[in-house]
Write a structure and sequence with these properties.
The chain is α/β, with parallel strands linked by helices. It is built from six helices and eleven strands. It folds into two domains: about 120 residues, Cytochrome Bc1 Complex, Chain D, domain 2; about 100 residues, Cupredoxins -  blue copper proteins (Immunoglobulin-like, Sandwich). The termini are far apart.
């Protein structure tokens, strides 16, 4: 317990540095959706089903402090402050979310970090992959599966179909997060290059009839939902 007190004090100091600056009722549903879209590619948060590895695991980061008595509101204040006061060496953009969005994201993380269980009701549906049930069909030996432009960990479709033979999978990336496209299954594993905003990642493979997985191989992205099923007939 004693060894963790300095950490608790440091986190509390961040709350004081952040100030109040938050009025009105926070929207947790919006906060979760924005967290998944803007933050999930870098951070793990179990309740949001995000598994990013480039930034801190938020469940681990707040577990000890929560056991020592840190409240949801205090964690919210810490997160609110960190969004606007990013460390110089951090890859996290400053003010990734602002205004009411910043309040909502901080409130959701404050409620959820290091808290066992799953979200329920309307909150359980927030931030889900809205493209999961869409199907992309190959044409002329090409299958387009673009990255979600919002930054959510999703392709433009969660399913794909193609005839057997040579197939080029094409992913245009309109988001501000780096992605690639890959296909694997039935002894095949092909990976395209990682590209940033405005780039295009492609991969070509000769596929026999069967079921394959297309995915982004950037760490944490497929685990966070950026994958789908390709059916070849």
């Amino acid at each position: 317990m004693r060894a963790r007190l300095p950490v608790f004090a440091a986190l509390a100091a961040l709350v004081l540095a952040a100030g109040c600056g938050r009025a009105g009722k926070d929207d947790l549903v919006t906060g979760k959706a924005l967290f998944v879209q803007k933050c999930g590619s870098c951070h793990t948060l179990a309740r949001a089903n995000t598994k990013g590895v480039q930034g801190p695991n938020l469940d681990n980061a707040f577990a000890a402090a929560r056991r020592d008595g840190m409240t949801d509101n205090t964690i919210e204040g810490v997160v609110y402050g960190q969004i606007g006061n990013v460390r110089r060496s951090s890859i996290m953009p400053r003010n990734l979310v602002t205004g009411a969005d910043r309040n909502d994201v901080a409130a959701y993380v404050g409620r959820s970090a290091a808290v066992p269980g799953q979200d329920t009701g309307q909150l359980a549906q927030a931030g889900g992959n809205k493209n999961a049930n869409k199907t992309a069909k190959a044409s002329g030996g090409k299958l387009s599966l673009d990255a979600d432009p919002t930054g959510a960990l999703a392709f433009s479709a969660g399913k794909g179909t193609a005839p057997a033979g040579a197939l080029q999978l094409i992913m245009k990336n309109p988001s501000n997060i780096q992605h690639d496209i890959a296909v694997e299954g039935n002894g095949i594993k092909k990976v395209g290059k990682v590209v940033g905003h405005g780039g295009t990642s492609t991969v070509t493979a000769t596929l026999k009839p069967g079921t394959y997985t297309f995915l982004c191989t950037v760490p944490g992205h497929a685990a966070g939902g950026m994958k789908g099923t390709l059916t070849v007939k």
